[in-house]
Amino acid sequence: MNPIYTIRLDGIYLRAFHGCYDLEQQVGNRFRVDIVIRTPLGDLPATDDVTQAVNYLTVFEIVERTMQRTQRTIEAAASNVIAAIKEAFPQIVEVECRVTKLAPPLGGKVGRVSVTLKG
Q: Of the residues 52, 67, 106, 115, which has the maximum number of CB atoms within 10 A of its CB?
């Protein structure tokens, strides 16, 4: 049996240009991305071989790069992140991605709006 383990990258803060309004795509907004990865453990504890692990730095770079592709919806942004991570690490069983837009321009005081996708 090959147990599944979980890797979390919580609180990746960045500036991006997602939004349904043209102004959001011009001036941008602050976002938080949280990633949960489920992947087989394999021989990693016995070998202690970092090349067998999902590289956290690579995941961070994928999130950062993928979030720079402007989308109208944060659902599309989250879907792009999931696809890019799974492409880089085919052994991954599941990626959960939460994209949070901080202080969204909704005409009132709203701290954040977020979506969570799994794939």
A: 67
Type of residue at 40: P
CA 35 to CA 92: how far, in whole Å?
13
- Whether 6 shows a pLDDT value over 90: the answer reads yes
Give the Cα separation of 90 and 52 in Å (integer).
12
Burial, 96: exposed, middle or buried (Cβ in 10 Å; 0-12, 13-18, 19+)? middle
Name the domain count of the chain.
1
Summary mean pLDDT of the chain: 92
- Asked if 11 and 34 touch (Cβ cutoff 8 Å), the reply is yes
pTM exceeding 0.85? yes
DSSP state of 50: G
> What residues make up the domain containing 30?
4-118
Indicate which CATH number applies to the domain containing 93: 3.30.1130.10
